[in-house]
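ENTRY TYPE: paired fold submission
RECORD: A
CONTENT: sequence, then structure tokens
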Amino acid sequence: MNSPLPNRFRQRILARERLIGFWMCMSSHITAELVGLADFDWLLLDGEHSPNEVPMFLQQLQALQGSASAAVGRPSWNDPVEIKRLLDIGFYNLLIPFIESEEDARRAVAATRYPPQGMRGVAGAQRSNRYGTVPNYLQTINDNICVLLQIESRPGIEAVDEIASVEGVDGVFIGPSDLAAALGHLGNPGHPEVQEAIRHLYQRVTAQGKAVGILAPVHADARRYLDMGMHFVAVGTDLGVFKQATFALREAFPT
């Protein structure tokens, strides 16, 4: 296991580089190992809408150990206990869903920081500090955890300035599907009102010097968001790619 510090992915987020990512839904360490060979800039391991639990996340992180891709974990909720467990098994980058207020944002950041900056519980030896072998881990890790917060509701849109301004928030991720549902356009993130909300969020967050990201598995959408200036964009999902290839293969060889 290589030393995790400094966190190069966080440095790139803070520099607002263009980072191309891929969404991992299948909860498989074998799939993770394979996708890790493609050298995406980042891979999202999902715990909100996928059946991942901590041991499964751990297997996937181990499978990605030799990959150049940065692993980003998404807990099921803004829960400090769940966040603590993901940090301890070796996530240094977190995408925390359903942030609706400055208070939500501060609570999310605090869950990733040891006291006095936050409330993360202290374990002397865990995978994140290479089982106690990383020098000065406790003194440096607070500055090496990347916190990305997801906005996907009307209250989140209304509070975007306050959310993005919280110290320790490194970037904001837009959830297009939930945003569409919240705006009354369930299943239609391409609706003009949803697209206007996405542009608004992008403008407000970038005005504060923060990175903005989004999930866009449709190529035309991904290119549009990249042309807009989005910084970290997931351009596909393992489940989507597998499903598309499987059905295409079956259609190529009908009975």
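RECORD: B
CONTENT: sequence, then structure tokens
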Amino acid sequence: MPLLIDIRKLRVINQLIKAGAGNAATSLGELAGVESTVEIKSLAFVEPPDIAREIGTDPIYSASIRLNEPPYGVFLLTFYEETAREMAELLTGTTVESEFNQLQKSALQEVCNILTSGFIDGIANTLGTTIDMGTPTLRFADGEEIAEDALSHVRVDSLSIVLDSLVDVTDRDAAFKVRLFLIPDPGSFVNLLDQLDLGEIDESDTEADPVF
């Protein structure tokens, strides 16, 4: 049975995404000691079986976590090796040679921690709640393998929110492309949205238009 969401709540979803992006940028700026923004370039809804196609088959870096409180589900971020190198060099001040050294690997893991927790905490703050989650594990694998492992416990009727984002480090003339996937439990997510007062959401704060 397809997931049904009140069309008026789509702007609420936009607001949640913007809140998560803003909080992730703040957290990353504090970690790296730089000014940064996380801009959502596109937002789309896809069915879980289509996520593998969205990720692709090329080797890619990823980090995923399971959410232990509403809206439950999975949060996954992915980025290509070029982005991984750029982020590692920014945070460590060292050049990535043929392979990442231990310091650079640790820096990438910390970036994943910051972006993940920052994004989810931003959503939780807007919802006026907390969302317990584990620590994401950085991995490098084929896209199909990543999708299969990350979504093994996801319900077929789940709503999958796919975000193409640009992490812009303004004072370093650097920008990183990161793709985010939020796949909440459908019933729990709809229940959270239904509890929100539409009047509390400022339409001027919802600039991203969902793409179907």
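NOTES ON RECORD B: Confidence is low (pLDDT under 50) at residues 203-212. The CA atoms of residues 12 and 201 lie 7 Å apart.
STATUS: closed
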